[in-house]
């Protein structure tokens, strides 16, 4: 057994402990078992314990399997009512720009503006089931717009303001929005980015649009948000109830292997799933201030948005998290009394390599939880947090996806934290690791992350997929009626999980499957290495592993460094982890949410055409790999 980096000093005030008493169990494994064996009891408890407004009806879970199950078929509710419940005076949205401008909104203000948006959308002619979209920064108006859309039963879908024309059109041409909210300019890394030409190109190719509304710029070609809502004066509170399965959000797959899949989510299903994560797994309370560094093109924006349902205040930031100095997010944490700070594993690795010591320069006494997602957090990342940020914090590595708008595995606040491990499976989800034969893998044996039962935030369907053929193909081809997520994972002796990367990027070395994260964890211990990317090249009737590295300024990939890397991989992992070649690359391809796209590099090296370069934030990075002759 590993040595725990952290254990809770007290569990007296934890909501998960109250849930354990309700379920009449004494520990988390027993609670998890209860939650999947009693789905209706568990999800009703989440609904009632979180004060969700509405009526679930008499029926719980009907049907069976992922494609046949239906949650609460008689329910009537509107999730905006829950997201807006509470006292008028509490500050529930704090917006911070990169330049430091801070705006605060009370719940009363948010409720009023959301109602004006709902009225304005109805005046335009929108009704339940219509789609509204947004190309936006992470600002308060985006929250108001989403709340207003949900109030009338419309479907909300957003992308980030930094998405290119083709990338946005690949998404929005499919779903045909009727109203579009846009950011005409935004700031990043100290520079003002003008979006007006891009927005004009996009608008010209979306013929279903009835209205375009612009955030900020009064001189824009479009009606400004503030001028628009100034004309919207509803005489009553607008809230159109709907069924539990009423669509509320459309999210998108990364689109790296074709046009993005448009994933349609139930508003109520996402709310219930996220509340179960935030309250029981992450100890978020009504008096908290919570923050996740995200853009509006990543599902973590939707996850943060749902935080309003806990009664907590949410803090929005738009810009570079390392600008104007690497301490920026910790400045925000201190100044806004954050209790929950969410970042990416890549961010933690970046500040670790900068030798940042936030605990020396900041008062983080209010901070109870740090969450990390986006990629596996290394052992060194875990240790860095406890040594340099706070020794008294719950570090929750979390993993899930756009596909479920939530987590498969995440933190458990009444369990110890071990370096490199995600603490436990999400309540209500029968998470397993399967071997090649579709059976649960033994402890310490890597396999496919799967889920064997339905849960509220399973997508309703893919847009324009009437027979659910694309939906079945995406998740259920490998194992019948078992959700296969595409992650390569192992269960640990401590009951946690170690992530080894995407299963479509696993490497086959001498017949052994190796997760790319296993390699990165070791190579990125080197101060000279900023980032690594490993792929398998088809080679002489077999495959060989090639490791590409990005080096820090002034570093050189010498024969000595190559030898040190190979030796470290051999000693700390195994001889099979040692790549056949190690090469320095200028840059690596990424999705818009900053995830490495190993498969795109593998395609270039193996001379396979990459079909959708528009899905990448930096498609030009592939040019270097395309020109290699290996």
TrEMBL record:
For this protein, the record's SUPFAM superfamilies field holds: Acetyl-CoA synthetase-like
Which is one GO molecular function term here?
Answer: acetoacetate-CoA ligase activity
One GO BP annotation here?
lipid metabolic process
AMP-dependent synthetase/ligase domain location is 102-453
Gene3D superfamilies tied to this protein? 3.30.300.30, N-terminal domain of ligase-like
Q: Recite the UniProt keywords alphabetically.
A: ATP-binding, Ligase, Nucleotide-binding
Entry protein name:
Unannotated protein
Naturally occurring in which organism (per UniProt)? freshwater metagenome
